TrEMBL record:
It comes from Syntrophotalea carbinolica (strain DSM 2380 / NBRC 103641 / GraBd1). Transmembrane segments: none annotated. Residues 105-186 form the Ribosomal protein eL8/eL30/eS12/Gadd45 domain. Residues 23-94 form the YlxR domain. It comes from the Bacteria. This is RNA-binding protein YlxRQ, putative.
Amino acid sequence: MKKDRSKSRRPEPGSVVKSGPQRTCAGCRKSLDQDLLVRYVLSPQGEIVIDYRRKLPGRGVYTCFNHECVDTAVKRGQLQRSLRGGQVASTDVLWQALQEQVRAKVLSLIGMARKAGQVVSGTRQVLSEIRSGKHFGLLLRASDLSPAIADKVDKTARCSGIPCFAPFGKEHMGQLLGKSERGVVALKSGSLAVSVVDELERLDKFAGELNG
Ligand SMILES: [Zn+2]
């Protein structure tokens, strides 16, 4: 099932998701929920940096999470003007930083899920739980699994309607859990899994735009 990525990410009417404060994108000038936007601030060195988790102090400027809006905002000098003459090394540097920060957020969400006992890991363990009817909110499979196993995991995920992503290698997946290599990590259904899926979908869409 292919999702329509062009749809707005605003919550459906009647959804329980609360909408946060609205901010304007410096690229397309649309006003959107700040959760859907990327925040930029001025570093002490006078450089414009991404503040994806919106934790850095100071004045912030926002863009949508896509290349077009970032590009427009930089080329028209909107980011630079709003952040008092701050400099942007290049949009490539911004994109790189953005992807790194999303990955870091994913890691921290998985860490939270692990502390909350919402993580099951190990290829055999996860596949056997799915076969016995357990539903997960998300599967992460290592990007460097053998093709045959990767295919098996992908098929199982598809058939069970579980979102499946491969953003990290086996070793990295193990480190996430403080263990040795892990081929598959599953998150139980719940708000943490939903948040991780959200971030990984953004990352996939963003990488797709770069390669497309
Ligand atoms: Zn925009």
